[in-house]
Design brief:
heterodimer; A: alpha/beta; two-stranded parallel ribbon; B: 398 residues; three-stranded antiparallel sheet; 12% strand
Amino acid sequence: MDSMEGNLALAKLKATYPDSILETKEFRGDITVTIKKEDLLSIMQFLKDDEELKFNHLASISGIDYLKMEDVEGRLAVVYHLYSFKNSRRLAIKTFVSEDSLEIDSVYSLWKTADWQEREIYDLFGITFKGHPLLKRIFLPEDFEGHPLRKDYPLKGRGERSRFDYEER
Amino acid sequence: MADEVKEILTERMVINFGPSHPATHGVFRNILELDGERILDAEVEIGFLHSGFEKLGEHRTYNQFITIADRMNYLSPLSNDIGYALAVEKLLGIEVPPRCQYIRAIMCELNRIADHLVSVGMHAVDIGAMTVFLYAYKQREIIYDILEFVTGSRMNNSYPRVGGLVSDVPEGFEEKVKDFADHFLHTVDDIERLLTRNRIWVDRNKGIGAITPEEAISWGLTGPILRAAGVERDIRKAEPYSSYDHFDFEIPVGVRGDSYDRYLVRMEEMRQSNRIIQQAIANLPGGEVNVDDPKIILPPKERVYHSIEGLIHHFKLIMEEHGFQTPKGEIYSATEVPNGELGFFIISDGTNKPYRIHVRAPSFINYSVFPQLVKGHMISDVVAIISSLNIIAGELDR
């Protein structure tokens, strides 16, 4: 379990990117750093390559829709869960995308695992990743409309099942 | 004659491998571009089993999601359930009693052995070695009997609850597990005798689908696939949960990162799991299995029927729009399941349901490397590679 004070990664991030960090949070030992969208790639590169930190494993990328959480400004966010094999430490990096510009830099150039994980977020949240080699839907059919994990998408769908057309033989 | 040969046109052929193919063990489609029998390029199409589990999780209370968690990887449901229960417990800031932690570890390891037996058995059957499959399934049946004895069902056990277990293990559990653990290693030896130095098995697997440690980390691979590439990483050791730090066990690693090493790693992991089970059974602590908190754990039936507090607690947990509430926050919790790192990212908005729940499913991430692994190999190697990755389609598509 980590605490915010004395966390090496956090201290280094604050020292190197003082203007990029918007918020830091600690909950049950998990540290989440919210950063500006523009600096995502360089911060990720720094966390991955820094000799002391070595966050070499991108465990997970998740999309979030904060539409129904009133105390959160901004709607769609992407969270990157990093892990360092060397130090056995975890760190979460969060960044918001605005609804007018749903584009964010792809981290495929740093971790190839971003390939499918970013496609998943594109598919289910509609966030687009700049620099992704082949950004297309992964779970849902290509002609599907909407992004089901968004909070304004109803659980039972928008009638896709009744509209499903099939060829009669 | 020589001129005639030159004029034979060769064409690249694109074939479908799946969505319904006996070797895929689930529904997903591989599109292979071939030059003769050699694979030039591959593309994967998944999503045939997409069930919207994450969306569903936002509309279910925390304990209701357990039944969904075990349907993701139906070969190791208990590992999924326990991983999920641990994530919610982290969110609540509680720790289950030692007895529960030991029982969970035993169940996880039994499930790991069952999962690896299926993986190795299927791998062998796909390549043509039927006997191994039968040896493996016989032992798996014994494990499933134990699971049925404890949880009441063979598959999709839904045994853990947030804050404990649905019930303590029944009488006779220790003897049954001990009896299994004492005799199980013979099967591992039998399978090893049948396969490890078998000429056909070695030819079909050695050097097939190899990956370097750097590439494996970049692709986010975890579990036996990462360890076969020579990276010593196991969450049970690196970030111990559920009392894993009390047990003495080794992490097997491979050297070449190919199908053959993945097989060897799985075989050794079964031996190590057996060791953990033996240690846990020998030192199984007594006491309660559930946390002492009536706001999280259902009261026993006698208290519900005979006391007003018990009835209220029961009502508060069961009725619609009730159930325990979690503090606001975001957590990520990872456990080592048979296929690798299973992560749950849960956002709580302070109500009785998760605001968002993301599952870092190992099969999904492990399978993304497939197109790279098959490139340059023969079409018959595709079968060996898919089997050695042990893809579970339920978890792949969620």
